[in-house]
Amino acid sequence: MLARASSRYGCPMPVIACVNQKGGVGKTTIALGLAASAWASGIDTLVIDLDPQGNATTGLGVWDPPFSIDQALAEERIGAISGLRIASGWPTEPDGVRPPSVVAATPALAMRESQLLTDPIGANDRLAMALEGVDHDLVILDCPPSLGLLTVNALFTADRALIVSEPGAWASDGVTQIKRTIDRIAARRPSGSLRLAGVAVNRLGRTRDNKYWYEQLRADHGELVLDPVHLRAAIPEASAASLPVHALGTRPGAAEAAAELDHLFRTVVPEFVAHPTEAPHGL
User: Fold this and answer.
1) Model-level pTM?
2) Could you tell me the residue range of the domain that residue 59 belongs to?
3) Which helix (H) or strand (E) holds 178?
4) Which residue in 79, 128, 172, 180 could disulfide with 133, CB within 3.0 to 4.6 Å?
5) CATH code for position 135
6) Looking at the domain assignment, is residue 142 inside a domain?
7) CA dihedral 225, 226, 230, 236 (to 10 degrees)
8) How many structural domains does the chain have?
9) Residue pLDDT, tens place only, 103-153
């Protein structure tokens, strides 16, 4: 079991895995949105990009990284991530706010999964071992769109899983499938060490079709379905500019998007709500 560091907020360091085996639902959008909310609150955050596409890496303003998560997964090495972190390119203003750190992904990560499969003892916990002793307030894991060993490693490391979905056909079936995987992994870990934080519904639009599928998700999964993040141009614009949406200023829709992401953040990581002023910006 991961020896988890304590955050400056007096709680064990939360580790969130953003997951869904289905591609195109916006896992990276939600992962970066949570990181943006943490950034706006001065919370020291580490983002680990486990998707070979590396969209979280570039969304954090990092290109051609000197290190990657692939190096931490190549062999069993306790604390390996401590030497692979680099500063993101997000702003340090206003108020000297600390930008997130990132452990980057590169396309080479796509080859790592087959290598992990050859470990005769099992490689489910390599990421957990690599993260052991690493000290941040919060860790966010952006997972690939698959149920392979990269996602399994994330779920053996995280203390909570956030399923990311969108209001579309077969979305509910996808949530059921990934929930089953989370339940199976939770049963193999010490009691209470992995829980489902909920289902984040991304890109909810105004169409009748979107509303129908959103209601279907709510009907099938009840209170697990969290308040949605609506479809707004400001969110992909922030990602394309490698900025947190909170930094877009008066751009139409930016404030509304930031407010929805902040609400999602408080729901998924309520520990920080109880101590809002204990760790001010820049410390």
Assistant:
1) 0.93
2) 23-158+232-270
3) helix 171-188
4) 79
5) 3.40.50.300
6) yes
7) -100
8) 1
9) 999 998 999 988 898 887 889 999 999 999 999 999 999 999 999 999 999
